[in-house]
Design brief:
homodimer; about 190 residues; alpha+beta; Pnp Oxidase, Chain A; eight-stranded antiparallel β-sheet; 4 helices; 8 strands; globular; Pyridoxamine 5'-phosphate oxidase (chains A, B); FMN binding (chains A, B); Pyridox_Oxase_Alr4036_FMN-bd (chains A, B)
Chain lengths: ~190, ~190
Amino acid sequence: MSLAPWRSYLARALQKNRSQPHSRYFQLATVQGDGYPANRTVVFRGFVEDGNQLKIITDVRSEKIIQIHHQARGEICWYFTVTREQFRLAGELTLVDYNHPDPQLQAARYSTWEQISDNARSQFTWANPGEPKSMNTKYFPISDIDRNKPSDNFCLLLLDPVRVDHLQLRGDPQNRCLYILDNSGIWNTTEVNP
Amino acid sequence: MSLAPWRSYLARALQKNRSQPHSRYFQLATVQGDGYPANRTVVFRGFVEDGNQLKIITDVRSEKIIQIHHQARGEICWYFTVTREQFRLAGELTLVDYNHPDPQLQAARYSTWEQISDNARSQFTWANPGEPKSMNTKYFPISDIDRNKPSDNFCLLLLDPVRVDHLQLRGDPQNRCLYILDNSGIWNTTEVNP
C-alpha cells in the first residue's frame, strides 16, 4: 500500500511540534449505544507497518470497547499547538484484543506492548476503570509485568482513515484541504474554503 | 443557579494553564445524520452569566449546525497540557442564531459578538466553508464589520453539562472524579478508578 497524500503533512506536523510531548495526543470521538457522542484524549502509537492505520492502545474494560462493538466508526481530532494546524481523521476502527485471530494484527499487538513504557503497561493491571474507588484497591507492582506477553486487558485499536480534513490556522484566510478515499482506493484531494 | 462542584476545578485548570493560549481550545464531538461521530477543535468563550453553560461560537454554514439540529447532544474533551488533566463534559447543545426568540440568549449572542476579535468577526464574512476554493473568492475588508450588530452567520452555541469526568494524570495511580447531574438538579460526585 502506498502512503496516503495527507501522510507527508502529518509527518511534517509531528516533526515541527516534536518539542511538545502533547503533540502525540489527540481526541477520539465515538458514538455510545444510546446514540450520544463520546470523546476522550488518547496517545498516538505510530502507524501500522506498510499502512495508513493509526495505532492507539486501550483497555478491554474501557467504555469505548462497547461503543466500538456497537459502531466501529471514529473521528480523531488532532490539534498541533506549535504550528496551529488541525487534522480531522475519520474512519473505521478495529479492535485487536488477546483473542483476535489475525496473526499479523496479533503480532502488531505484541510489538506495541513491548514498545510502551513500564508505566503504561502497569495501567492494564489497575482496578476496573470507572468503578468507585475503594480503600481496598490493590495496585500491581510494576516489576512483575511481563514485557514479552501483553496483559489480557491490553487491546490495540486501529483507525483506518477514509476522510482527512487538514486545516492550517496560519494564513489569511486559513488553508483547508480535504482528502477523501474513493471506492477504488484512490485519495481525492480538494482545497476548500476554511 | 449555584455553580456546579466541578466549576472550581475547571477554574483552577484555566488559571494554572493560562500561559498557553491553546488551553482555551477544546474538542467538541457531535453525531452526524448518518450516525457517525464528528469531532473538531473550538474555542471556549466563557460561561453564560449565572449558569454552568459553556459558550462556543460557530457559523450557521458550518456542518455541525445540521448535526446539532439532528441531535442536540455533544461531548467536550478538554485536555490541559501544563497540569496534565482532562475534563470530559457531556450535555445538551443549544444553538442561538439570529432568529432565536429568547431575549436573554439573544443578548448573550450580541455581547459575545462584541467580545471577540476583529479577526474572529471577519471569518463570518468569508466564503462558504467546505466549498471548493475558487480564484474568485472575495474576502470582506475587516474595517466594514459592525461590532455592535452580529453577522447573520454568527451563531452562539451553548453546552449545558449533565456529566463531567475529570481525570488528573499526575499521581500514581491517577485521580478521576465523576460528576453526574440527577433529575432534581443535584450534582452527585464519585471518585472512581482511572
